[in-house]
Specification:
The chain has about 350 residues and is of the alpha+beta class. About 15% of the residues lie in helices and about 35% in strands. InterPro entries: Cholesterol_7-desaturase, KshA-like_C, Rieske_2Fe-2S, Rieske_2Fe-2S_sf.
């Protein structure tokens, strides 16, 4: 029995940091419930393709080498170009036209290495991820990066953004964000909110502007106390687990030490809250028809927007209304309170 009524979504997703794959190097990956290999050719272009050689199944990310602008299988030396076409068999005068490897469009932008995933290999990128001007002028320092694996579908993590009420109960915050606007247009979701913070000078309205570019990439701008830019990615590992990567950039406060201290404190607080959310995500059931309060956030608007990224459709309309999580004996004692404690004592 599947845990969720929806499959892996399509879109742009982060699979690594750009500096994780040096020129001439390969890297084994696993996302979208499939083995992949990333490699960078001699012209410094990043490529991502399915990992297994169509000859006899060797994994190109384990022992494969980059030769010029081609990747070579470690098993028998077959070579493939950036389109996955077999271009050389060293012990044959002929190539194998049927030996084709699926490749994925790549994009390196805003300090992230992204791939376009769609279950249909014939469907190419349908939107772009814009380059951020804040990262070009030198005003913002960073990034400070965090990374987590969560045993939950990517949609569950994304839905958390429109849920203001949980801040008081999961994160024990005195004030909760007030969503002032939520608008979607095509693959982009634009949410604006205000969160009030007590300071020695009185209450300050912190502003949060979040732009989601499909299900995999979000740009979040925090302002009011200290200007911070968060470049967020959520990538499906499979249909029941996800990886998040947060890159934080902070506007300079005048000197490097002050900027670093403030940035580290901000990141620690966001990371604390993320760790508190994890036990809830991993143990909650998905309800297709939740019993919402009249003051809850725009859950159903978010779900309607997210539905467009399921090429195979969903099972939201069948007779099941509750999709429970698996039984994990080793996780039975996990609670948000325990997550809070671990976050305060060095959780990353």
């Amino acid at each position: 029995m599947s845990r969720y009524p929806f499959p892996i979504p399509f879109g742009w997703f982060q699979v690594c940091e750009p500096d994780e794959v040096a020129t001439g190097a390969t890297k084994a990956l696993f996302y979208f419930d499939r083995h992949l290999v990333a490699w960078r050719d001699e012209e410094a272009h990043l490529h991502v393709m399915d990992a297994f050689c169509p000859h006899l199944g060797a994994h190109l990310g384990h022992g494969g080498t980059v030769e010029g602008c081609e990747i070579q299988c470690p098993f028998h030396g077959w070579r493939f170009d950036d389109e996955g076409t077999n271009v050389d068999i060293p012990y044959s005068t002929r190539t194998n036209k049927r030996a084709k490897i699926r490749t994925y469009p790549t994009l390196e932008v805003n300090g992230k290495a992204l791939v376009w995933f769609h279950p249909d290999p014939e469907v190419g990128p349908q939107w772009d991820i814009p380059a951020l001007p804040e990262l070009e002028g030198g005003e913002f320092h960073g990034p400070i990066r965090t990374r987590h694996t969560v045993m939950a579908h990517a949609q569950e993590l994304g839905e958390n953004a429109v849920d203001s009420a949980h801040f008081r109960y999961v994160h024990n915050t005195a004030e909760v964000p007030e969503i002032t606007d939520y608008v979607t247009e095509g693959p982009v979701a634009d949410m604006r909110s205000i969160q009030r913070f007590p300071t020695p000078r009185g209450v300050v309205d912190g502003k949060i502007e979040s732009l989601g570019y499909g299900p995999g990439v979000s740009i979040v701008r925090f302002s009011g106390i200290v200007d911070t830019l968060l470049v967020s990615s959520t990538t499906p590992i499979d249909a029941e687990s996800s990886e998040t990567r947060f890159d934080f950039y902070t506007r300079s406060l005048g000197d490097a030490e002050t900027t670093s201290n403030v940035a580290q404190a901000f990141v620690a607080e966001v990371d604390r809250q993320f760790l508190e959310d994890m036990p809830v995500w991993e143990h909650k059931a998905h309800l297709t028809r939740p019993a919402l309060a009249d003051t809850d956030g725009p859950f159903m608007a978010f779900r309607k927007w997210y539905q467009q990224f399921y090429a195979e459709g969903t099972a939201e309309g069948d007779e099941r209304t509750l999709f429970p999580p698996p039984y994990w004996p080793e996780k039975m004692d996990e609670t948000p309170a325990k997550a809070t404690a671990s976050a305060r004592h060095g959780g990353s």
